[in-house]
Amino acid sequence: MATKRVPQKLIAADSTIADVVGALDKPVEYVRRVLEKLERCKRAHGDAQVRLGVRGRSECPNYLIEYVRENAKTHERVIHQDAAYSGSTHRELAPRHIEEARNWSPEEMNITAVSALIGRLRNPNAPSLRFSDED
């Protein structure tokens, strides 16, 4: 008798890590590993952001690390892909994965937002900083 596969939870096409964190297998570890890749990219390029892979498994989606540079002549912000990573192993994926635009959410999270997210995951009962100035 064939075993039934558990149907995959779909990832919304415009998801960020913050949107899917509840579905991740190991949210703190996943976000920590993403943050490591973001920090490496920021050291190399001065900037870093992450887009989520939206066609994979919601428990450990792949992710794309990018950085933004301003074009010196036009002053336009240009996004450059750094590398794509497997969400389960956190190893770099082949460049062909990056090229398929529909694999990636159009929404990104910058390194500051991912740092804040891991802080909330590690200390969920901490008071939110958002409301600290409303006394």
Protein described:
By secondary structure, this protein is α+β, with helices and mostly antiparallel strands. 30% of the residues lie in helices and 21% in strands. It is built from four helices and four strands. It has helices at residues 17-20, 27-45, 95-99, 111-122, and strands spanning 49-53, 63-70, 77-85, 104-110. The chain has a four-stranded antiparallel sheet. α2 (27-45) packs antiparallel against α4 (111-122). The N and C termini lie far apart (64 Å).
Task: Summarize the SSE layout with pairings.
Elements: H1 17-20, H2 27-45, E1 49-53, E2 63-70, E3 77-85, H3 95-99, E4 104-110, H4 111-122
Antiparallel strand pairs: 1-2, 1-4, 2-3
Helix pairs in contact: 2-4
List keywords for this structure.
alpha+beta, 4-stranded antiparallel sheet, 30% helix, globular, disordered C terminus
Mean pLDDT: 88
| Lateral strand order in the biggest sheet | 3-2-1-4
Low-confidence runs of at least 5 consecutive residues: 131-135
Total helical elements: 4
How many whole angstroms does the radius of gyration measure? 17 Å
Helix percentage range: 25-40%
The gross shape turns out to be globular
Sum this structure up briefly.
By secondary structure, the protein is of the alpha+beta class. The protein has helices at residues 17-20, 27-45, 95-99, 111-122, and strands at 49-53, 63-70, 77-85, 104-110. The protein has 4 helices and 4 strands; from the N terminus they run ααβββαβα.
